[in-house]
Amino acid sequence: MLLTWMKTFLTVVECHGFRAAADQLRLSPAMISRRIDRLEAHLGLKLINRTTRALALTQAGQRFYQHSTNIVRYLEQSVRDLNGLSEEVSGVLKVGLPYSLSHLFLAPAVHRLSQQYPELTLEIVNGNHLLDIFSHSYDLALHAGPLPDSGLYYQLLGFWRKKVCASPDYFAIHGKPETPEQLVRHNCLDHYDNRRNGWGFWRDGERYDVQVKGNLRMNSSLDLCKVAEQGAGVVYLPSFTVKNAIAQQRLVSVLDQDIPGPLQLYVVHANRNLSAKEQAFIQFLHSLNLVDEKNN
């Protein structure tokens, strides 16, 4: 029970509240509260100061959080290592995937994996889970871009680049930009999280940004791709997001010679020794041809 209480405590701290932790663990807030009460009673220490609006860790709570994180991480990794000794592709596999990769590539094909391994149960969660791979017990996570110094194990799946695209109809009306600077004449549909309002390009061995403007910002690359297909404007998106649209001529790519060098797509795993189910899923990812860019 102590390990269960510790994991509940970690979730409360990382979710910044009892109700959010309850949602994460699929328990009632009352159950979360009881577990924390029992943990504090077991330790004989007050870990969390609770008010109606917020919670704050006591000094003992801060120290216990640091120790608990290491203990739970070590125990969960030990379990994964032991599970890796099994040669059967079975059990539960929890995977974190960027939404666009999940929607475009995984969802249309994942039934093949289920048919091949009927004893395997998949839990696919969309989002950026690299930093949560330990605390939320992910077995694998896909990460697009440079890896932080996380101490995780990883495999390189391939490379991707940004692409500047618009529909054939849009370019027929407005013309194609021949240089990145000419994008200022176009309606550039930008990602909401791009606070710089700049798109990155490469010239004479150096990266530089072109400031763009447009009448639409969205926080979904997939939605931006779909709007661009309708002729609304120009987008700057990962190659794996627009790959199918370009292949089917719903979008046309321009300025490829000015795009910065390739970025990596990694599959990250928490334990050194991959289990049979993890190996099977990674092989499945390779079969999806998520990326096909060259490292040059």
From TrEMBL:
GO terms for molecular function: DNA binding; DNA-binding transcription factor activity. Residues 1-58 form the HTH lysR-type domain. InterPro entries: LysR-type_TF_proteobact-type, LysR_HTH_N, LysR_subst-bd, WH-like_DNA-bd_sf, WH_DNA-bd_sf. Keywords: DNA-binding, Transcription, Transcription regulation. CDD domains: PBP2_CrgA_like. PROSITE patterns: HTH_LYSR. It comes from the Bacteria. Belongs to the LysR transcriptional regulatory family. This is LysR family transcriptional regulator. It comes from Affinibrenneria salicis.
